[in-house]
Amino acid sequence: MQIKQYTCVKNKEGRVFLRCIQEYPFGGVVAIDSPESIYIIAKDVLKLCELASEEIWLLAFNIRNTLIGVFKVAQGGGNYAPTTPRDVFMRTLLIGAINIVLVHNHPSGDVKPSKGDDNVTKVMKQAADLLGINMLDHVIVGNSFYSYRGDYKL
């Protein structure tokens, strides 16, 4: 299985489109259907648990829940990475995703969600619902992982 990372670029007319910037070979998890499988991708493929700064990634899935692309949507400092629904859902719509998962790291290793994490999750879920996109989970990774879906907060 190849995991493709995309970025958004503009053409000469100013229209936004996707460009594949990296392909990660991945033979680990067959089905990406649990917080544990998201954690494995975040740790082993995206290397989020090794970073000194916080990053937020979007995992985009088709109707069959096949991973069709990943995007880094925000990079911040040691304890915060600013993002907006526009950052997430422009990419979601361009790639044609039906289901999404947000994943971000806590460089401290402590995966307990902050009030800011809770607020971002709430706003993203509301935006997803308005657009008819299924936000399957928001996973925080560090020394272990935390799942909003697993904690019944999504």
List the SSEs and their pairings.
Blueprint: E1 2-10, E2 16-25, H1 35-45, E3 55-61, E4 67-75, H2 85-95, E5 99-105, H3 115-131, E6 134-141, E7 145-147
Parallel strand pairs: 5-6
Antiparallel strand pairs: 1-2, 3-4, 3-5, 6-7
How would you describe this protein?
- With 154 residues, this protein is of the alpha+beta class.
- The protein contains three helices and seven strands, in the order ββαββαβαββ.
- The strands form two sheets. It has a five-stranded mixed beta sheet with strand order 4-3-5-6-7. Strands 1-2 form a two-stranded antiparallel ribbon.
- The longest helix is centred in the last third of the chain and has 17 residues, at 115-131.
- The protein is globular.
- It starts with a strand and ends in a 7-residue tail after the last strand.
Name a few traits of the molecule:
single chain, about 150 residues, alpha+beta, five-stranded mixed sheet, two-stranded antiparallel ribbon, 3 helices, 7 strands, globular
Distance between the termini: 29 Å
From the spread of the alpha carbons, the general shape counts as globular
> Unreliable runs, pLDDT <50, ≥5 residues?
none
* Share of residues in helices: 25-40%
**Number of helices, counting only DSSP H or I runs of 4 residues or more:** 3
Strand neighbour order, sheet with most strands:
4-3-5-6-7
Strand proportion: 25-35%
* Secondary structure category: alpha+beta
Radius of gyration: 15 Å
β-strand number: 7
The overall pLDDT, averaged over residues, is: 92
The topology string of helices and strands comes to EEHEEHEHEE
Characterize the biggest β-sheet: 5 strands, mixed
